[in-house]
Amino acid sequence: MSCPSSHGKQDCQVDFALLIVRRLIGLVSVMLGIAVVTFVVTRLVPSDPARQIAGLGASPHAIQQVRVQLGLDKPVLTQFWSYLDGLVHLDFGTSYVTNHSVLSDIGDRLPATLELAFVAVLLYVVISLLLGTLAAASRSRWQQNTIRIATLAGSSIPPYWLALVLQVVFYSFLGWLPPGGRLPIGTLPDARVTGFYLIDSTIALDPATFWNALQCLVLPAASLVLTNVGSLTRLVRVQVLQERSTDYVSVLRARGIGRRRIMSRHVLPNAVNPVVTVAGMQVGFLIGGTIYIEKIFQWPGLGSYTWDAIVAGDYPAVSAVAIVLSGVFVLITLVVDVLQYLLDPRARLARV
């Protein structure tokens, strides 16, 4: 870690450690707040999980028995303290729908969501950087206008509508890609090491499964990326244009250094700092947007699990997913802060 000359190396390390500690304290505070909010909201929703679990034709006595089994007959404060005690011991309770531990359900479905989110984020960042840089560096008005119109059009389309259109075009009409799922029906990965099918198939040296899993990822990832890429593309373009107009770029040009070298070694590294912050925030929104995308594409991740839990009034599952996703979002914020601290000396000077 390089430090500013006016700031000692030891002081830099202390500042870095304090940054990590503050963010971890913030992580605990946010998760506690989310836990309280989700508990209150789920209890205010006009639904009765006991009635849904017992069935439409169940008698009031049978419904009451289910309510007692679930602990819903106890006072709200008693339920809340029991809920917090479970969270401290990483016990999110038992799902009303699957009748399994919520923690095990999340463990089974989290890799699917993270794999989709990782591919979507990778495409999101790469496409935004390429389009934004091209729009700023291109001298062709036609290219600039094409990129601008395309990104604006993508930002104006709802992700769920685009997902349905992509399904109709690439599955129903063209037959190029599967309509949903992580693998074609009847296909299972040879080994489950990490839960990420792309990684597991690579470890197992199974190119057929890798190709099938990659094909299944295309449409849901595209639905998430194409509707969000416009904002980051415009930011990259603005930052690159600002850096190109600075005095040091003019000096480098006067010294006869080529445009590509100036762009790759000077302009882009300096322009990427604010992009990292915005990209990190957008990653959280991409993960949150997987709920309806997963349902449309029958993707067995946390999104579809959350959807089913909300419909069924599955209090433990809804609360647990909200806490896990909020924790992921805060961790992403921590990573962004660390990257900003490491990449931009001004971020370190601001803490002196």
UniProtKB/TrEMBL annotation:
Residue span(s) of domain ABC transmembrane type-1: 110-336
InterPro entries recorded: BPD_transp_1_N, MetI-like, MetI-like_sf
Bilayer topology annotation: Multi-pass membrane protein
Membrane spanning stretches: 20-41, 116-137, 149-174, 210-229, 267-293, 317-343
Keywords from the UniProt entry: Cell membrane, Membrane, Transmembrane, Transmembrane helix, Transport
GO molecular function: dipeptide transmembrane transporter activity
Localization per Swiss-Prot or TrEMBL: Cell membrane
Pfam families attached to this UniProt entry: BPD_transp_1, BPD_transp_1_N
GO cellular component: plasma membrane
Tree of life domain: Bacteria
PROSITE patterns per UniProt: ABC_TM1
Protein family (similarity comment): Belongs to the binding-protein-dependent transport system permease family.
PANTHER family listed in its UniProt record: DIPEPTIDE TRANSPORT SYSTEM PERMEASE PROTEIN DPPB-RELATED
Protein name: Putative peptide ABC transporter permease
Organism encoding this protein: Actinacidiphila reveromycinica
Highest classification ranks of the organism: Bacteria, Bacillati, Actinomycetota, Actinomycetes, Kitasatosporales
